[in-house]
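Hey, quick one: can you model this chain's 3D structure?
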Amino acid sequence: MDRGAMLAACVLLCCSCTAVTAIQRADMFPYGTSNGDSVLGEGDDETSKVLSLPKPLYFYNSPFSQLYVATNGIISAHDLPMEKQYVDDGLPTDFPVVAPFLADIDTSGGRGQIYYRATETPSVLNRITQEVQQGFPDAKFTPTHAVVATWENVPAYEEQTRPPSPPNKVNTFQAVIGYDEADSYVLFLYPEGGLNFFGTRPKESYNVEIELPARVGFSRGEIVYFFISRTEGPYYSLTTDEQSVKNLYQVGNTGVPGLWLFHTGNRYSFDNIVPASIRGLPVTPPPAGYDSYMETTTPEYDEFEDYEENPFDPKTQEGEDDYPLTGKNPEFQPAPAGGDQSISLLPRSSDGSDNILLTSEPGYGLEPADRHYTPPNPAQTVPEEGAQQPQEQQPHVSLKNKPPLEVVNVHSPHRNAPPLSPGVHVVSVDEEVNLDTGVIQYTTENKETCARFQQQCSQNAFCSDYATGFCCHCRPGFYGNGRQCLPDGAPQRVSGKVSGTVSVGSTPVSLNNIDLHAYIVVGDGRAYTAISEVPEPLGWALMPVAPIGELFGWLFALELFDSQAGFKITGAEFTRHAEVVFHPGNQRLSIIQTGRGLDDHNHLTVDTVVSGSVPFLPPGAEVNMDPFKETYQYYPSVATSTSVREYSVVTADRGSESVSFQLKQNITYRDCRHSNQATSIETLQILMDRVFVMYVKEERILRYAITNKISPVGVDPPGPELFNPCYAGTHDCDTTAQCIPSEGQAFQCQCATGYTGDGHNCYDMDECAEGLSTCGDHSECVNLAGSYRCQCQSGYEFGYDERTCVDINECSSSPCHISARCINEEGSFQCQCQPGFYGNGFYCSQQEERPKTHCEHHRDRVTTTSPDGYPIVGAYVPQCDAEGQYIPQQCHGSTGYCWCVDNRGEERAGTRTSPGAERIDCNRPERPKTHCEHHRDRVTTTSPDGYPIVGAYVPQCDAEGQYLPQQCHGSTGYCWCVDSRGEERAGTRTPPGAESINCDRPERPKTHCEHHRDRVTTTSPDGYPIVGAYVPQCDAEGQYLPVQCHGSTGYCWCVDNRGEERAGTRTPPGEESINCDRPERPKTHCEHHRDRVTTTSPDGYPIAGAYVPQCDAEGQYLPQQCHGSTGYCWCVDSRGEERAGTRTPPGAESINCDRPERPKTHCEHHRDRVTTTSPDGYPIAGAYVPQCDAEGQYLPQQCHDSTGYCWCVDSRGEERAGTRTPPGAESINCDRPERPKTHCEHHRDRVTTTSPDGYPIAGAYVPQCDAEGQYLPQQCHGSTGYCWCVDSRGEERAGTRTPPGAESINCDRPVPVTPTQRPESMCERWRASLIEHYGGKPGPQQYVPQCEPDGEFSPVQCYGETTYCWCVDQNGHMVPGTKSSDAVKPACISSVAPPTVRPLPRPDVTPPTNTDVTLLYAQGQKIGALPLNGTRLDGSRAKTLLTLHGSIVVGIAYDCKENKVYWTDLSARTINRASVVSGAEAEILINTNLVSPEGLAVDVKRRLMFWVDSSPDVIERANLDGSGRRTLFDTDLVNPRAIIVVSSTGTLYWTDWNREAPKIESSSVDGQNRQVVVSDGIGLPNALTYDSSSGQICWADAGTKRLECMSLDGSGRRVIHTNLNYPFSMIYYRNHFYYTDWRRDGVIAVGKDSSQFTDEYLPEQRSHLYGITIATTHCLPGSH
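Sure thing. Here's the predicted structure for all 1680 residues.
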């Protein structure tokens, strides 16, 4: 019998002796939004946002600072993988888990709720303390923090093909973690009736009736050691079968059925979980509730300790407040009938009054009652007006001059309301308490203060202390409730999801998390709401339900006179319950809208749940709603309203009909009542006019547009003629500006906070760039529209206050070797081996003697250079300390010089002192190294011990770190002069022993020969010729020697003065050289130039109008050149290059070409780059040529000669925004002040200045702006011809993109949206037919098609529960050669792209910045970019390089010469490429005769690409532009996948994962010499790469799980790793393999030498990754 069953048996035995009452739902720890809980999003596999803990929690013996709560009944300290990786498996798990009920739970469609919070509430901590004291009597434990997670009414996952479970088959349970600085304890609570299912079916059970019992217990997860190795950690399991799951609520290890307690961690030593001991059973049954644990641990409440064991009589206890639900009576009333009546268990005081102890978070008025249990299908009832209520249940609070508080017959506001008053205060409430009399008294010793809780305020708020607590107030320029503040005047965006089921007539329609977006122009109260993907007939029927969008109008209404919009009261966290009752018909619709706070962009997030029924409206109907007023009543923490609306429905058949509905609503929120200045708003009215509703059938979008104004009740706005434009909305202020009314019709426009401008045109202010942010140390500022946010740098995280960045203690994850100690540092850490061990800290080994250090090796090399082993006289001997490290100050024993060194022994520049001089303090900060010192260090650290390679040239630097004017090579004796950058000055090199040149004399320019020679001689790292390269020989004047010889081959030849070989003069080695002084003079550069022009026509004469250079008798350029056709003249230098500023028009006086030439200006360089791009040195036709004045400066106005456009420029030639005029238009005065650039112009400029001359990169998309700098409504890509519509921010509007030549969409019409409903697919029809054929119950060996959620065939199909599987194409046909009968499923790729999520971003390239080496990986509809930091994966900078909607990107390759990425698209059946530059778009290369293109390789050297097509089973090749396509192999291939090319050898390698005979083959790039390289010991060879360092090919096998390498000749095969998960593609770089893994859905790194996993990156979007390649700023060795 296992441990859990034995424990259960013991408990059952004890229970047979004395009846013990099981815990009830009311006995659970308080939960729900009214207690400060967050709500986990509904779904089948959801994980909460990170729950950051104020202090680390010790689980087992490891500290964790964050937790995640998951749908499937678990809490984890790590972000969870996809559920398929753990939900059907038993314990242990790979990650840390607290599992109160691990099963496949599904809360989709609003079924059940999951709540969670971290808390320091005394009542919670006190109860945990008492439970631990009774379960572990010897424990000394006082919790400081707790985590409460509750699963309420959650159902099991059900397949859609199965009949739905009964509605009451749902579970409720709770897990509570209490901890202090050393220990942690966990409580599991299973209330009576809370468990109604005990296990779940695995998703891949293929209709076999199998159910896995829920797993309950704990798992430490994998433990990392040696930094990269892992081992399975300890675990503790409580359940094994269905009966053991039932025992959870029938027994317990605390003496109370359903209550389980465990000791789960200790800071110092902990082996495994310890359950509580079974204590004696109570003589009397315990009370109905557990509120008796509300005692506090603080001394102020010692008076309650006597009641610890008091069995309270429920009859003496008064009920708790159930505010704000009341009937028509304005006084507070008890909870609605049918609700669970919780009983307060606090003792009564001596004077007969009740002492109510509240909770410990900031108080904001009266505390609501603890959350009431809501049954699975709660009856939606309220007390009838006038019904008899138990009067002792509530203290009465009178509300003077207040109308009755209406009740909405939906749900209790406590269900989702935010916490209203979690405070540590004793509140004495008399029988009759008036809110205005101040009878409520607080003890202030424990009041919450700003010092403790300021982090609850917004970063744009300040905190104020008051007598009873603190309040948050928004700073000037911002508005809100202090907890959330928004910038005044800025437009607001709202996003969220809409879900629920609504019946239209008798037809139920489900909404499954469809998108809601709202945009509010705060300046005039206009609110626009759009709900996408609303199916018919619900879209038509919801048109009258404008109250869905009215919430946003109330939150951000235009404020008239002395009034406040809703957001100033509620902030961003609230719950709105509304009920709409339609007349006639009495249909009822419930609307619940929950404000979830502000997202990272300061946008409000609101989720909406609708349920009930609405009247049917025929398609094509119109709904007209007149303006109306609605009065809101305000109470502490709640606002209500009741109204009746009339509207008309116009249809073609029945004309116009008038109908109506009644609206009742409550909006609950957190209120702060501590402020003495807080005034209570009683009533306000909101005027809603210009109400517009519409449903667009084609796009399935439901739209509401309402203009909202809020004012005091009874204050009617004046007539339109007296209405200030600010109130009427007729002003011309920018949408990001405030309209400030003045006298009469006057007003002012003021840009919103965070924007700048004149109020009519406002632009976002970059607070980060302008230094206006308040981001603290170790944080980075991220600019937002109108605001900014702070994010912590790498190695830091936000502290408890969520504002200060604190160091992450990396040591808490035990990254070091077991024999090393971890030392945490600011932003980093280091590992040091313990005494007696040696190594780098990540790996330590025990040796008898520690290895010598760098200093000791250095010292020993010097001290053993003489025959007797002692230093050579006069040699410098390094000095090392006892640990073998360099002493900071080194001195030369012979010369007396001293200097400071770093930890590598390198001299610190500027620290050398002469003998007898005062020594420098070596602890002072070191100045930055100069260029010379960096140059010197790069050379001197190239050998293993950090010193120069023998014979290498080491630059010599002076004391200031500058290059010495004369440099000498220590080994060869050559010397030469250098400039300030260390570049050799031409003609200054002298051989050993020769007299050195005076390096102070002026330097003559290098000659053509010297430039030629230098280009060759500086191609190796040390600046000398590559072995075997020809080096030109120049004379002392830098001219070519008449005879040139190749030093390696011995050939000699004559050259002309340009270094060009003279024909017929080449002689082989050993033969007599030709006399190079013979009379024939070679042609000069001018003559060659002239001849190229004059021989371009068929008869050998110049083309008419061409410029012909003029040469003198010696063949040199005449100083002045003239164009025979145009008459222009100019001066040239000896190379024929035009001298800037010398060009004169026909008839003008020529310039004296003998005058000295001034340097060219920026404009002239710009002009010359353009004008010298054609062969004859003039502008390309149609190119823009900058116009410069006589001084070489840009003319203020520039014009394009071909197009006629003109514009103004600044001194750098940059176009000034808004100054461009078309041909024939009046030019702008370029002397007027320049207006600020708009968003569009900034966008355009970022693109257009990426090339060296400041113009767009070819193929890049350039935004088009109008004269005012705004985005043109329609944007087109100049290269591809695609066009699309954009909004005012330049964002593409979904569904508007059209291909080249197609008719453009009218950008003023609404945007179409893809429908959500679709016909039944082929896979679904076939599946249903077979299931019917099998009688509804297929056997475990029978085949049932497996379909994807979108209806397409799953790429892998299997027979029932067997492992007999195969791949299918998009039509369900089996792919030959893929059948499998072993445990490893075939590596099938889906051939159908997943559905596109809207709105769509443009498919532009967005490369990462400041990266030299980046991994590019394919992930379905995108190509991701993952930078490398050294060899580590830098996930913090990962981003999407290119989004490709509707694609399935599989193969990927990179061209390092042209910086382009190539890929295969399995969905579109194309091969594509794009430049890896910002704004570039995809280019289709091949789109015919492709079926399943997978692997792709690029031969950089030969400019070829190769790919495999796995459906026709062929290997093909083409040029990189798609031309020259041909088939290399089309036989003896079954399932080809990976392909690589080794450019250096011209060899192709590819894999074929044929199930019957897998193999790896090779051939030449032209298809010759095909042969099998590997055929034995492989299974699914998916991935293939080339190790350029060892010259081996390496492959990763998803069948054998091995990573292996082998030499090209088939020898030296070795296994690198034996336990990969499921590799798909792989690339090699710097001793590491990086592969994409289908099991982890990420990129995994494996060290070649260590054979260990070294790193891992899991993208935020979890789906299969396919191909992977590497992109570098320069071509790697072996790649070209």
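One thing worth noting: The first helix runs from residue 3 to 15.
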